[in-house]
Amino acid sequence: MPVDTATAVDQYFSIPLDHLAPQTVVSFDLYLRHGSGEPVLYRAANMEFGQEHQLRLAESGVVELFVHRGQAEAYREYRREAGGEAEPGPTADESELVEILQDSGTPLARRCQTLLGVSHEVIEVALADLGSPGLPDRVRRVSEATVRFLAAEPEAFRSLVRLVSTNAQLRAHLANTSLYAIELGRLADYGDMDQLARLGRAALVHDVGKVDLPETLLRREGSLNDLEYAEMMSHTELGLSRLVEAGWTDELCLEVCTQHHERCDCSGWPRGLAGEQLSLAVRIVGIADTFDTLTTGQGPGRGLTGYQALWKMKRERPGQYDPHLLDHFVRGLLDSQRR
Ligand SMILES: [Fe+2]
Ligand SMILES: [Fe+2]
Q: Cis (ω within 30 of 0) for the bond into 270?
């Protein structure tokens, strides 16, 4: 019966030669592959791999070896012991999840945020590598912690559902704003690829301070009273604190985070800066941010079509946005509709 080479090869995964540390006992079989054929056994498991073996392979032009998928766990264990790249392990929040969720001294919203944060981390690991060591236990622990939390806190589910929806909206807004900012930067000759990437990164975190605002405020669809408006405005300072605390030193990120609500006609906030005081990056993100808010946001004056939003920015808010940039943006959007 003919051997299905493609299927047989699929049973193996490749590892770089330098993943094998000299003078270590390799706890899995090593295979070599010649041409497009099926891998053949090179050294059986539990034999020492010496420097001479590594040199001989390197001299023969071998850059990779193969391991049978059935021995993937042994390979991972070997890599960990050899000091190779660590698999992403549980964070402190994950290790103490049950205790954190039970701590009634911590506000419910913060505990909900921790639970969602840990769930997302574990899911990310699962999506990247279902065979990650300890993953089944980590998934089970998160599920058990969730079960206990929902049973102990009658308001937890309602709070979690609101948070899920708010987080999703904020994530989408940040991603959209970054996309618009990069395209507008490209059309306006903002700079080279690196500069555009820095601009996109700054736009991606411009509203990160909203994570610290109560979700009831973020989900309000009606107009805000003075107190609520002041609280909403605090997201630029909250964002700056978050970025600094997390070690983000890129001046552009800090500047965009604190100034993206400033406007060219001094009508913006928090400082009412004048147009000439606003950097090109701030003016670009201001347009991208407003456009996405008008077209995707909820509540009065939101949920507009692209044309309605541009009309509003050009005609109803003249002077707020850099007119040359706005023209570039209009042309870019029109162009994208035509194609
Ligand atoms: Fe903002
Ligand atoms: Fe924003």
A: yes
In the reported structure, the alpha carbon of residue 81 is separated from the centroid of ligand 1 by a whole-number distance in angstroms of 46
- From ligand 2's centre to the CA of 198, what distance in Å? 17
Q: What predicted TM-score, i.e. pTM, was given to this entire model?
A: 0.61
Categorise residue 47: left if φ over 0, alpha if ψ from -120 to 50, beta otherwise: beta
How remote is the CA of residue 186 from the centroid of ligand 2, in Å?
Answer: 20
Distance 236 CA to ligand 1 centre (A): 7
Ligand 1 centroid, distance to 323 Cα (angstroms): 21
Closest CA to 292 of 190, 185, 204, 193: 204
Per-residue pLDDT of the chain in tens (339 residues, 90 and over written 9):
444 444 566 677 777 787 788 788 899 999 998 777 788 999 999 988 888 888 888 888 787 788 887 887 788 788 777 765 545 567 778 888 989 999 999 989 889 988 988 888 888 777 777 677 777 788 888 888 898 898 899 889 888 887 777 778 888 899 999 999 999 999 999 999 989 989 999 999 999 999 888 878 887 777 889 999 999 999 999 999 988 988 888 999 999 999 999 999 999 999 999 999 999 999 999 999 999 999 987 766 788 999 899 999 998 888 999 999 999 999 988 877 765
Encoded tokens for 109? 């919203």
What is the distance between the alpha carbons of residues 62 and 312, in angstroms, rounded to a whole number?
Answer: 63
